[in-house]
Amino acid sequence: MAGAQSLTRMPSRATEAAVPAPVTWRAPLLPARDLISLPPLPQQKAAPAQSANAPLQVATGRPLVKAAPIAQWTRVPGGYVARLRVSSEGAEGLRLRIELGTVPGAFELRAQGPASSVIEAMTIDPLLGNTHWTPWTEGSTQTLEIFSRVEPSASALAITNVSHFTDSPLTAKAAASECTISTQCTTGDATIDAAMATRKKSVVKMVFAHDSGGQFLCTGTLVNTPLFPAPFLLTANHCIGTVTAAASLSTWWFYESPACDLVTGNAPGLVQVGGGAQLVFTNFNVDSTLLRMNNPAPAGAVFSSWDSSRIAKGSPIVSLSHPHGDTSRVALGSVVNEFRVDQWPYDMYAVTFTKGIPEAGSSGSGLFVMNDTGTLDLAGIFTGVTTDNSADGLSCTDLNEYGLYDRFEVFEPEIDQYINGAPITDDAPNRVQDYAGIALDPAGNDMPLNLRTSDLVYANKRIDYAGDIDVYRFIVSANATPVHIYTTGTSDTVGTLMDPAGTEIAASDDENSSSTNMGMTHTLDAGTYYVGVGHWDPHATGAYSLVLSTATTPAQPNYTDLWWNSPAGSESGWGININHQGDILFATLFTYDSTGAPLWLVLARGDKQPDGSYTGAIYTTTGPAFNAVPWNTSNVVATQVGTMTLRFAGNSTGTLTYTYNGITVTKQIIREVFGTQPTCTFTTGDRSTATNYQDLWWFGAAESGWGVNVTQQGDVLFATLFDYDANGHATWFVLAHADKTGPGTYSGDLFTTTGPVFNASPWTPIVATKVGTMTFAFSSGNAGTLTYTVNGILVTKSIQRETFSSPTTQCQ
């Protein structure tokens, strides 16, 4: 049921904070004790180029084998002080992880590097968690002063990890590509320049830790809310999506080149604000996160305006970010389309750029549109770039790619109650962290799924308001448990499966093409998990029921694979592709006729028999030439020529028996192995995020009569294309080895073969002749493009998985 669409705008507002006095030591004359001294990092191989579709790593975590307690405290006026030094040889900078034991209250922390006159400060508040990270300081040594009004015990504080930075955020060093444009430069448009002069004061460079202690960079935007001056930041879920990552946040403000043409030297206005943040709300499905900093925004910062209306195609946009962690840069472009990208269930804005580009480190930055008052409003969050032309994606030399931005139109209703300070009563918690205060009910909904005698059903639930996300907890107590999660009802739902920290494991829009209910099947190890359910329309409401089940996979093995004669290699040159869905097999046998020419026979439907075998009629076909345009399905004529039975002795061995024009052939068969074999299982879930493409593919019913079988092992594809020659006779081509050349892309040489007649005994060698090349470019787990050449004739076809029964097959 759709609700009324509410489009909201919030104006920009400058901070009212005064410039603070410089931080000074409480006990400057007290010597600092050397607590930790680490040798240089082990020499590593050169790191690969980092993607614009991920946070930019700038430091390596060095977990301590044994925690280093801060045990020595000295009485000073007003309380107690501990002063200490930590060093990691060769580091450009340091951050330290501090774990709390039993503490008497909050602590003041001050930190300084050896070559800096600036003392950074933050508060360690036990009410905000037991893990805290110090601010960043430059150099290989960090001096700490920690003050408590009450004398702490020797076990109150301990350092457990040292983050060793390999890069300094203080010095502009032209890390961003040469085609990026400093925010000190003019864009050539006076209106944009004036708006940018204000909006760049909303943009922050963010550093945060992952569990290992590695430190990463992204970009965020300070946004205005009805709770002003509460310091809310927007960034990407793939940057910060957990409570622990949020707690580690430190931010840099006003990180800008001194002048347009000066790309080296210091950023004179730089201010660091440490102390972490609270994870207010995050959603993988729209790759967005709302944070609330634990400390105020600095003097001079501007709270950005925003607009939650949908951006029209063709609208000009402005991007402001810190590519490669460098000083702030501007890029100009326009929204040209909306794309559904791989595992994300919502369409994203696709942007082409005319000046400047975002890069690694730009993740989480804002997409801004000009309003009628000459102000830049935030309207989207940067997720990444397409990689249609190369694995590197958008670059100064390849502008024929798109920047991808998630729609604030979707995310704003989800965060509305938090930025308005008006919590909404709901029928389910809205966030993973909301379960922290909800006790387990082992005899009720928290009984492990694998121990239940019936499905766990949350019946008659509702998306109660625009942006409502309902989160449910469930438990699995045995490893390798297949779990099927889906909704029922008339609402168009989207879902997210999350781990105990709230990190996405899988996401789903529609489980299949005939339903708008989300659904996914995943094999889980023992643990606690969460499921989030929302409406695909960000402004809609409606009813649904959530079902969680472990009874999802048939007991029988799945035989989808390329099979050949046993023992392996004994009769190279023929084979049979088997596709297994439900209790039906579809098989294509590629072999040779009495003249040695290619022959393929199709088992269009092999039904499972009471004894476990599969039997059906086999056919030969004639049809249009492989390059016929248009394809005329009425020219495809199938003739029954016999029967086929497949009987399996186990998961990997079987017997093939078929009769062709009165001649009976029996072969012992095994799966053909040429790489790392996947595991193929049955699924009723959405396969759009699959990255293994082993299956039967076709154009669709409009070109019924030809198809291509894909077998994938590791990063190598083997494919057989069954089609027709210029005279309409059935023929087949083989892609014996296709290497992965980019994301979802595989290419190799294409061959035709001649060989002994199908019933030859003994089998004699075949002759393979190269006739061209073949390339698969998969745009998702369900769709792609097949391009091939045969003797100079180019053919390009859109392809999709062929579905002929349920459940279908997914290999991984």
Could you characterize the architecture of this molecule?
- The structure is a single chain.
- With 812 residues, the protein is mainly β.
- Helices cover 3% and strands 47% of the residues.
- Strands 4, 7, 10, 11, 13, 16, 17, 18, 19, 21, 22 and 23 form a 12-stranded antiparallel β-sheet that branches. Strands 40-41-42-43-44-45-46-47 form an 8-stranded antiparallel beta barrel. An 8-stranded antiparallel beta barrel has the order 49-50-51-52-53-54-55-56.
- The N terminus is likely disordered.
Identify the notable features of this structure and list them briefly.
mainly beta; twelve-stranded antiparallel β-sheet; 3% helix; disordered N terminus; 3 helices; 47% strand; 812 residues
- Total helix count? 3
Overall mean pLDDT stands at 91
Unreliable residue runs: 1-7, 45-49
How would a crystallographer describe the biggest sheet? 12 strands, antiparallel
Number of beta strands: 57
Computed over alpha carbons, the radius of gyration is 31 Å
- The best one-word shape is elongated
Structural class: mainly beta
Topology:
Elements: E1 9-10, E2 13-14, E3 33-38, E4 56-69, E5 74-76, E6 79-88, E7 93-100, E8 107-112, E9 120-124, E10 131-133, E11 137-138, E12 141-148, E13 157-165, E14 171-173, E15 181-182, H1 190-199, E16 203-209, E17 215-223, E18 232-235, H2 243-247, E19 250-253, E20 264-266, E21 271-273, E22 277-283, E23 288-293, E24 302-303, E25 306-307, E26 316-321, E27 329-340, E28 347-355, E29 366-370, E30 376-385, E31 403-407, H3 408-419, E32 456-463, E33 470-476, E34 481-488, E35 493-498, E36 504-508, E37 519-524, E38 527-535, E39 542-549, E40 561-565, E41 575-581, E42 584-592, E43 598-608, E44 614-622, E45 637-648, E46 653-660, E47 663-671, E48 680-683, E49 695-698, E50 707-713, E51 716-724, E52 730-742, E53 745-754, E54 767-778, E55 783-790, E56 793-801, E57 808-811
Parallel strand pairs: 3-6
Antiparallel strand pairs: 1-25, 2-24, 4-13, 4-17, 5-6, 6-12, 7-10, 7-11, 7-13, 8-9, 8-12, 14-20, 15-27, 16-17, 16-19, 17-18, 18-23, 19-21, 22-23, 26-27, 26-29, 27-28, 28-31, 29-30, 30-31, 32-39, 33-38, 34-37, 34-39, 35-36, 35-38, 40-41, 40-47, 41-42, 42-43, 43-44, 44-45, 45-46, 46-47, 48-57, ...
